[in-house]
Specification:
327 residues; Quinone Oxidoreductase, Chain A, domain 1; 2 domains; seven-stranded mixed β-sheet; six-stranded parallel β-sheet; globular; binds NADPH dihydro-nicotinamide-adenine-dinucleotide phosphate; ADH-like_N
Length: 327
């Protein structure tokens, strides 16, 4: 027997309960993993609260990420004792996820624990940090270099934003971070942000399609008006990595930044990201994310804390990253 945080639905309301499970209840899959750590992402907040239409069938086990040890495997790439990490592939949404001491999954979704990272560190990174790395890689692929000027990170005190800021600073970029929380300024400076922008500067619609050219690149976790404003403020030829929608999924903009300034809007998806790119991103994380900064942005929780944390993250009240000690 092992413990899982089981979500049930009744009268359209989703509730969570720690439940004793046995392996026979786990879904089909070719690898059984003993989960050591999971984490909390914005999407986990949606699932924990039954929002976003992400979960179709209940009972359900959330947790879009986990790190652990293979217990049994019929998959050619994994054997008992291997340390593994899972992010994405709709685990925790369409499939049962990591808020459970054991998980059975399709081995194709697993990657080996990246060299140099512990399972706890891998979950401190989690989908949020992994996607931040994908965003940085996309900006680099489109020509960004540190000499070009400041890179804007929106939603900077959140999970994606904190990891993006720490990576960019380590790579030698000047980082501007926008935040709505005044009490995070010292924290953001510690992450490597040198210019702090108040969120309100970006969440009012612009009166003009083009503003002063300001940013050499942008990692955007917020979407909505913030993304529209960032597009209007990009330098000639610069790129925005669109990662999130914490501030809204509508994009009300004009094509002018694309046509007159050659601005690029780069979509970033972590869920179906091909394995070769995943492995590259994890390798980059191991080398380009300072582990002491990762530790400073990370707090620790247990399974029983998740229902409250799920509400906190949707309210924008979680700072940095949260690891969930499952073992
Ligand atoms: P967090 O809640 O940790 O971070 C989001 C941050 O956005 C908050 O901390 C806050 O930053 C800011 N924010 C929240 N609400 C608003 C608002 N109304 N207006 C402006 N800013 C706001 O979430 P994550 O970092 O885990 O995820 C960020 C976003 O990225 C989410 O939308 C998530 O769904 C998306 N995402 C997408 C992925 C992909 O594959 N494309 C993968 C991972 C995440 P501050 O307090 O500094 O203002």
């Amino acid at each position: 027997m092992f413990k899982s945080l089981l979500l049930s639905q009744s009268n359209d309301k989703v509730s969570a309960q720690i439940t004793e499970m046995d392996e026979s209840k786990l879904p089909e899959g070719d690898v059984l993993v003993k989960v050591d750590y999971s984490t909390l992402n914005y999407k986990d907040g949606l699932v924990l609260n039954g929002l976003g239409g992400l979960v179709r069938n209940y009972p359900h086990i959330g947790g879009i990420d986990f790190a652990g040890t293979v217990e049994s495997s019929d998959h050619k790439d994994f054997k008992p004792g291997d340390k593994v990490v899972l992010t994405g592939w709709r685990v925790g949404e369409a499939h049962w996820g990591g808020y459970s001491q054991k998980a059975r999954v399709n081995g194709d979704w697993l990657v080996p624990l990246p060299e140099g990272l512990t399972p706890r560190q891998a979950m401190a990174v989690g989908t949020a940090g992994f996607t931040a790395m994908l965003g940085v890689m996309a900006l680099e692929d489109h020509g960004l270099t540190p000499d070009q000027g400041e890179v804007l990170v929106t939603g900077a005190a959140g999970g994606v934003g904190s990891v993006a800021a720490a990576i960019l600073a380590k790579l030698g970029y000047s980082v501007a971070g926008s935040t709505g929380r005044a009490d995070t300024h010292d924290y953001l400076r510690d992450m490597g942000v040198t210019t702090i922008i108040d969120r309100s500067e970006l969440n009012e619609p612009s009166k003009r399609p083009l503003e002063k050219e300001r940013w050499a690149g942008c990692i955007d976790a917020v979407g909505g008006t913030t993304l529209a404003r960032a597009l209007a403020q990009m330098q000639y030829g610069a790129s925005v990595a669109a990662i999130g929608l914490a501030g809204g999924n509508k994009l009300d903009t004009t094509v002018i930044p694309f046509l007159l300034r050659g601005v690029n809007l780069l979509g970033i998806d972590s869920v179906m990201c091909p394995t070769a790119k995943r492995l590259r991103a994890w390798q980059r994380i191991a080398t380009d994310l300072p582990m002491e900064k990762l530790e400073n942005m990370t707090s620790e929780a247990k399974l029983q804390d998740l229902p409250q944390l799920g509400k906190d993250i949707l309210a924008g009240n979680v700072r940095g990253r949260v690891v969930v000690d499952i073992a």
